[in-house]
Amino acid sequence: MAIDPDLTGFVREHVPSVWALELLLLLKRTPERCWSAAELVRELRASASLVSEILQRLQRSGLAAPEPDGWRYAPANAVLEQLCGELEVTYKARPVAVINLIARPVDPLQSLADAFKF
Length: 118
Prior knowledge:
Layout: H1 5-14, H2 18-29, H3 37-44, H4 48-60, E1 64-67, E2 70-73, H5 78-93, H6 95-103, H7 108-115
Antiparallel strand pairs: 1-2
Helix pairs in contact: 2-4, 5-6
């Protein structure tokens, strides 16, 4: 069973690594919580520079927002919220498929075809 094309596009555009996936889902699981960068580093057992880089990318993607005390899950619109929910469900059900999607290089011809989808 293939992963939904919209979810595939979302992952390819906004989730560049398993680290980013784990960080995004951690924020999503606790939307009311404001996480400091140090807490995220500790929770993910990642480097501070990696966590910082991922947080900046999630902010640019409209998925996380900085707060005075740290970072919070903050999808910019309902579509992003829905795709994050689908990602969470799919990752729980089929983690290897999602990891393979992240790790697989993008097919240049598919990327060109996807550029013309509306």
